From TrEMBL:
The keyword Hydrolase applies. It holds the Pfam family Amidohydro_1. This is urease. Pathway: Nitrogen metabolism; urea degradation; CO(2) and NH(3) from urea (urease route): step 1/1. One of its GO terms (molecular function) is urease activity. GO terms for biological process: urea catabolic process. Keywords: Hydrolase, Metal-binding, Nickel. The keyword Metal-binding applies.
Length: 563
């Protein structure tokens, strides 16, 4: 490519965004994707603005929104675990995705999938990446500001375990749950609440079910013992709700093998399966790679770095009510921190064994780090791609499969695990239009706009006293969709089919298919095998082969974009 061709290409990208065959580097990572498809007609792309073609009789059809779209996102690079990597336009009607493909006016253009009407709201997507909204399945909402931070990071759905500065790990009081449902309506955020499974009888579970929980949390701090595990799983099988399991870190009543036996082939979501966040020491990681155990990680151990071990001892002591002055408490905390299992966990993610990432917000992790850490981890295993023109296009190291795998970890797969996939988790026709728009240069770190149920709810806002909307200083904050009763309308509350809760405005949606989901159902994952951790916690094998990864000295998607 000579200098003139390069200049023409750069100009075209500046106007129209990436095209089929183009390479796009994601933020400052090593991850480079190549655009697989482009639904536009070359030279006839729709664009809005002065002197552009999105006007009546050209790119816009004179019809109402009932015959077109309420909202159209044009010419955006979709990165979706199911759709793949393609440039397209997204049509939205009534808060749901109604069309995906070529946008325009079918009276004047060929093969139009997304009809732009005279009244359609248009969001230009050139230079932006569209993903499904992030789903964080492990949130300790100890502060209401967690909801702000989640939205600002590109998360549109949380599975919460509390709603205030108290010790919770699940809530079962019907009265308290009724208050929680009303509180969460203040944010344009989908919310499900886990009930506490801490007893050996069904009565507390029945109360929580009537209170509208979407699943249950078993936690070692209240006893992850055989009777509780079996009672909860039996109850969940009857009522089709998910069970999240934080196993017995002290091995007081059960070893990891005992826990697997008690689970007895039933579906269970194994939280922070590496073990630093809690669970059988030193070998809870052996729960991953099994068909019925749906394993996830929390973000502090992703991407595995040189300071990971030091950070986690203090975190464990603080989060779990331990006393740093008691040597026994300090030793128990240190027993949970193992470099070898952290290193292996990251490798297992890249192999497709662990299908979900989450935060464990305010319980060990950071709610605004899940997108960032997931893709920093992906970058660890990517080959350096040279894009200066010195390497032939066919020889450039591309990471489409790796990127799509990691998108699945925070969108499609958590939706499957918790029974949400009939509503969210992918950019697909019929699903809620929960879409995050990212600039190529800040992908997974700083979103441009968070679209909730079809409307901008959070995103980049400029100086309100300026003459244009994008004047500095630019901040990520609430958009109009976050105000008034609209915030309540845009989110849904995930509950269960036996819920006794009635909300005034917010839609309640029962979860479904949580008891039949298996690891082999996980999109772009499903690799099964036997994991072994030696008794010291220093050696991890997968199907007999030693697995590890090198700790990172510096993380991507951090200091380049964040003060």
């Amino acid at each position: 490519m000579n200098s003139q061709e390069l200049a023409d290409s750069q100009q075209d990208i500046a106007i129209h965004g990436a095209r089929k065959g183009d390479f796009v580097r994601l933020g400052d990572t090593q991850l480079v994707v190549r655009v697989e498809a482009d639904d536009r007609e070359l030279g006839n792309e729709v664009q809005i603005g002065f002197g552009k073609n999105m006007r009546d009789g050209i790119g816009m059809r004179s019809v109402p929104s009932s015959e077109s779209c309420d909202v159209v996102i044009t010419n955006v690079l979709i990165i979706d675990a199911i759709q793949g990597i393609r440039v397209s336009s997204i049509g939205i009607r009534g808060g749901r995705i109604s069309a995906i493909g070529r946008a325009g006016n079918p009276d004047t253009m060929d093969n139009v999938d997304v009809i732009i009407g005279s009244g359609s709201i248009v969001i230009p997507g050139e230079g932006l990446i569209a993903t499904a909204g992030g789903i964080d399945t492990h949130v300790h909402a100890m502060s209401p500001r967690v909801c702000d931070a989640a939205l600002a990071s590109g998360v549109t759905t949380i599975i919460a375990q509390e709603f205030g500065p108290f010790w919770g790990v699940g809530v079962s009081s019907k009265w308290a749950l009724e208050q929680a449902h009303n509180m969460y309506g203040a944010w344009p955020l989908n919310v499900g609440i886990l009930g506490r499974a801490a007893g050996s009888t069904r009565a507390p579970l029945e109360e929580a079910l009537a209170g509208g929980v979407c699943g249950f949390k078993i936690h070692e701090d209240t006893g992850a013992h055989p009777r509780t595990i079996d009672t909860t799983l039996t109850f969940a099988d009857e009522f089709d709700v998910a069970v999240a399991l934080h196993t017995d870190g002290l091995n007081e009543m059960l070893s990891v093998a005992d826990t697997i036996d008690v689970v007895d082939g039933r579906a269970v979501h194994a939280f922070h399966v590496e073990g630093c966040g809690g669970g059988h020491s030193p070998d809870v990681l052996t729960m991953a790679g099994r068909e019925n155990i749906l394993a996830s990680s929390t973000n502090p151990t992703l991407a595995y770095g040189v300071n990971a071990a030091d950070e986690h001892v203090a975190m464990i002591i603080s989060a779990h009510g331990m006393n740093p002055e008691l040597p026994s408490d300090v030793q128990m905390a240190r027993n949970r921190v193992r470099n070898a299992t952290m290193a292996a966990e990251n490798r297992l993610h890249d192999m497709g064994v662990i299908p979900v990432t989450s935060s464990d917000a305010l319980g060990m992790g950071r709610v605004d780090d899940t997108w960032r850490k997931t893709f920093a981890m992906a970058s660890m295993f990517a080959d350096h791609a040279i894009l200066d023109g010195s390497v032939a296009p066919d020889d450039v190291a591309i990471n489409n499969d790796r990127v799509l795998m990691h998108v699945a970890k925070i969108t499609t797969n958590p939706a499957l695990v918790h029974g949400l996939s009939h509503e969210i988790g992918s950019i697909q026709i019929g699903l809620m239009a929960d879409i995050v728009l990212w600039p190529y240069s800040t992908f997974a770190s700083k979103p441009n706009m968070i679209i909730k149920n079809g409307l901008p709810a959070w995103g980049v806002v400029g100086d309100p006293g300026a003459t244009v909307s994008n004047a500095q200083p630019l901040l990520i904050g609430p958009q109009f969709g976050a105000f008034g009763v609209t915030a309540e309308d845009l989110g849904v509350h995930f509950t269960n089919s036996n819920s006794g809760i009635s909300l005034s405005r917010r839609r309640s949606v029962p979860v479904k298919n949580t008891r039949t989901v298996r690891s082999s159902d996980m999109i772009r994952h499903g690799i099964l095998g036997e994991i072994h951790v030696d008794h010291t916690g220093n050696v991890v094998t997968f199907n007999g082969q030693h697995i590890t990864s090198d700790p990172q000295n510096a993380a991507t998607l951090t200091r380049t974009f964040l003060l």
